Amino acid sequence: MARRLAQRVVHLVNMPLRLNLPAKTENITEFSLRTVQSANKIEIKRVLQSVYGLKVSKVNTINYDGKRKRRTEGWMAKSAPFKKAYVILQEPVSLPRNLFPFNLFKQLEEEKQKHEENIEQRQKSKGIRRNSSNAHSVTMNRHGKR
């Protein structure tokens, strides 16, 4: 038991944090995030300091109720309630540019088009090549010419 008391025990809160995208990516001193309603200011501050290594000076929180929406047949649906936290940092932080890959889908489509073009070029060039199994036979085009 004494050995267990000497060890350092760190408890990390299982708290989801969803960062609201700031307008700028450099010298960020204030940002907001969404979390569960049960989280308090002290827990949010400790998680940001211990897990993410941010020096937090102040945390302000607001509770939001879930929005009610009327569905067909008269029953109501409600979105989940959440807490929004506004965090003020002691030192400004900059986000890396590749953190939010906005052009990822465009790049993937361009790579796919290039790959398809390469396949088409290979198929076109196959009709001109000689047959490797028989050195004397030559492939003919659709007009019967070499």
Main features:
2 domains; alpha+beta; 146 residues; single chain; 4-stranded antiparallel sheet
Question: How would you summarize this macromolecular structure in one to three sentences?
Answer:
The chain is an alpha+beta fold.
CATH topology (level 3) name of the largest domain: Alpha-Beta Plaits
Helix content range of the residues, please?
A: 25-40%
**Rg, Å, rounded:** 30 Å
Count of discrete domains: 2
Number of strands: 6
Uncertain segments? none
Q: Note the run of SSEs as H and E.
A: HEEHEEEEH
Distance between the termini: 89 Å
Query: Which class best fits the helix and strand makeup?
Result: alpha+beta
Family: Belongs to the universal ribosomal protein uL23 family.
Biased composition (Polar residues): 130-140
Biased composition (Basic and acidic residues): 111-123
Protein name: Large ribosomal subunit protein uL23m
